[in-house]
Amino acid sequence: MKWLRYVGLPFVIVCLSWTIAFADGDGAARNFNFQKAYFYNFYSVCTVASGRTWFVGSHGMICRFDPGPRSFVVQESGTLGNLYSVSFVDDENGWIVGQDGLILHTGDGGRTWKSQESHTGEHLFGVTFHDLSRGWIIGAFGTLLGTEDGGKTWSRIGRKVDRIYNDMCFVDGRNGWVVGEFGGIVHTADGGKTWEEQKSPLGEKTLFGVYFEDTENGWITGMDGSLLKTVDGGAHWQVVPSPVNETLLKIQVSGHQGWAVGLKGILAVYDGSAWTDATVRIPTRAWLKKCLFPDPLHGWIVGSVGTILRSDNGGKTWYPAADMRAGK
Fold first, then answer.
1. Cα–Cα distance, 317 to 297 (Å, whole number)
2. Cβ neighbours of residue 240 under 8 Å, at least 6 residues apart?
């Protein structure tokens, strides 16, 4: 039953079952081989203040971008399992979660990764840390985990429900939202100790992405191009006209700029008043799993078949990361 549900979710792609050597040479830090990238699916990306960026994906793939030399290197994860989400709080300290309850932690920028005990075998689809101590994890079948000691101990929080959680967003150490199957929206105002259900106007339609700018203003994406907006912390959600019909997997909105990505290379952009279809800007029809803008100009998109895209002009144009490395 688990297998059927996972295959049916656009969030999780059934990956290739063989392993390809992704980089040349030996050692913990190896050059990223873009020519073989299409054998991998990338699920998540995280950037810290310095511009250093991590990408994670299928077959245990961890890739780090360093802005100074504009280099992409592969880091050894120690697993061939799928890695679904990554969160760093600074240049050195980060966490990754993946299939079968896997949690990885680094304290040296990813040069070495060590596992942490999750006490679950469920797939884990999201991780976020507010600081070096407080973090949260979401996953399959109602999995909600929390830590207050940097992951030395993880505890189940909230009640277990028959629902796959797909995404979460915390705006501080107390206020967070989680979305998932069957129109599920849950909110905490006390750092995850208690959770309350919020009502989706889309009924039981699956929700995939959530993003809050602050404790009041938030957005959600879902199946069939669905877009939801709240201006009161989720007490009320309203449907927003969408320019696309394909499922939207992730979203980010900052002021009068917004981006949402999804299946078949879909990109929708927000100008502060309305969303428009900007898929023509994307040089691939791959499934796009996450968009991330650390600042208004510079952004990343990751997705299936090795997709890593970069924008330097607020998302007006996108180009493959391989061109960035080559200095084109």
1. 11
2. 227, 228, 229, 275
CA–CA separation, 244 and 262 (whole Å): 10
- The whole-number average pLDDT for the span 261-288 is 97
For domain 41-323, the question of CATH label 2.130.10.10 is answered with: yes
Number of neighbouring beta carbons within 10 Å of residue 34: 17
Of the chain, the end-to-end C-alpha distance in Å amounts to 48
Enclosing H/E stretch for 325:
helix 321-326
Is residue 153 within 8 Å of 185, Cβ to Cβ? no
Whole-number average pLDDT of the chain: 90
Concatenated DSSP letters of 74-126: EE--S--S-EEEEEESSSS-EEEEEGGG-EEEESSTTSS-EEE--S--S-EEE
| Residue pLDDT, tens place only, 207-245 | 999 999 999 999 999 999 999 999 999 999 999 999 999
CB of 167 closer than 8 Å to CB of 139: no
Chain-centre distance for alpha carbon 185: 17
Dihedral sign, Cα of residue 154, residue 159, residue 162, residue 167: negative
Nearest to 10 by CA among 207, 220, 245, 144: 207
- Measure CA 128 to chain center: 10
Nearest to 138 by CA among 94, 192, 197: 192
The token pair at 209 is 């992405």
Report which residue type is found at 303. Answer: G
* Gap between the Cα atoms of 74 and 89, Å rounded: 20
CA distance 96 to 13: 18
